Model the fold of this input.
Amino acid sequence: MATQNSNLQRWLTGLVLAAVLLLIIVMGSPVVLTAVITLVIVIGLWEYNGIVFGPGHRAEKTESMIIAVLIPWIVLAGSTQWIAAVLTFAILMVFMVFLWQAEGPSLDLSSVMKALFGLLYIPLLTSHFVLLRLLESGVFWVLLVLVIGIIGDTVALYVGKSLGKRKLLEAVSPGKTVEGTLGLIAGATVAACVFGYFWLPQIHWAHFLILGFVGGIIGQLGDLCESAIKRSHGKKDASALLPGHGGLLDRMDSLIFLAPFVYYYRIFVIG
Done:
């Protein structure tokens, strides 16, 4: 009964999130999407900071949050010079905070590395959703990322539960299996091809075969990366924000890696 309630809670939360996202992506302007992405970044970085820093480290958390909020809006403005300027400023500020707080004979750079990695990992990668939205037929490219990631994860969950025997990387994520990962790649590939056939018919089907197959692998890497961060700090979930799912970062981990891949494939390969 507890498992059934957990699954129902998971599905209800997922359906509500999917409906809200679909409405925002289809009906909203790039500015609206950027505002939503900013909120996602803030929540995701808050969860990340909670995992890697724990209590305290107020200066690092505040500084990284301020910089993170700026990144998607600079991406929307389309200025590569400003993006480079903000990232440079971020690196300098992180080190300045570190030096300001430095005490004792031995200096620990781990807080600097955690803050810098958090800025590269969440705000920078997630802001690629804004870049996708600005493309021609941008709504559909954003939706493609969600289709590959969500359907791939869903297929992996049920294939892993029913057929999973061989552990994929037990030290990083004990629940993931080789069979579940193969199901993820297959599901992501089929989903990408079907989506491309109906909503981006001007693009050759072979591109969606590649996007789904490679995207499934990259999405799994994103999932494993977040699992490694949590496991190295003794955490099971990023937070308890979403009933049945854990934290927002737990649901976005694969999408954070997928968005840059789909964007650069569209720009450099499809053209």
